[in-house]
Amino acid sequence: MVTFAVTQANKRGAAMGAYSRSYLALGKWDESSKTYKYVKGSSDRILPDNYLEVSSATEGKYVLYVNYLWANKSKNIAVVSIYSVSPAHIVELKDGLSPQLFLKQIYFDHATKNQKKQIISEKGDGDWACSEVLVN
Predict the structure, then answer these.
(1) C-alpha span between 135 and 60 (Å, rounded)
(2) Tens of pLDDT, residue by residue, the chain (136 residues)
(3) CA–CA dist 40, 25 (Å, integer)
(4) CA–CA gap between residue 52 and residue 40 (Å, rounded)
(5) Closest Cα to residue 62, out of 106, 32, 19?
């Protein structure tokens, strides 16, 4: 098991309104398709700590997308951690992969595999919709 954690500054005893809303999305690089595949996500959480636990993680390149809607205008800090039996390395992506492309790839992958997707075309040409893409 691997646990990805994102933690806001410690505000012991603070009201829940003191914390900011966070969105996390985890994807894994798939060498055969040359795209990122959806692993897990968490949205709309207003907690000091946000965790993504992956029970069947395999060796590979993972990208964790983190987005905060900060509750105040001051500079804020969040810390990313990984807990695993095997060694893991964290690096910040600065060039190459845009957040928009990464999210497009993983959420398209997630939607195509979601059993609740619905065919929306009567012609049978493969058009479908999935309204539960952001729900884990």
Answers:
(1) 24
(2) 899 999 887 666 666 567 888 889 999 999 999 999 999 988 767 778 888 999 988 899 999 999 888 877 666 788 899 999 988 888 888 778 899 999 999 988 988 887 666 655 565 555 655 555 443 3
(3) 6
(4) 7
(5) 106
What are 17's two structure tokens? Answer: 């309104």
Instruction: Determine the residue type at 72.
Output: N
Q: What does the block give as tokens for 38?
A: 């959806």
20 Cβ contact list (under 8 Å, min separation 6)? 8, 46, 68, 69, 70, 71, 76
pTM of the model: 0.79
Sequence ranges of the domains in the chain: 2-97
Evaluate the CA torsion angle 64, 68, 73, 78 in order and state its sign: negative
Question: How far is 28 from 45, CA to CA, in rounded Å?
Answer: 22
DSSP 67: E
Burial of 88 (0-12, 13-18, 19+ CB in 10 A): middle
What b/e string do you get for 108-121 counting C-beta neighbours within 10 Å, with b at 16 or more? bbbbeebeeeeeee
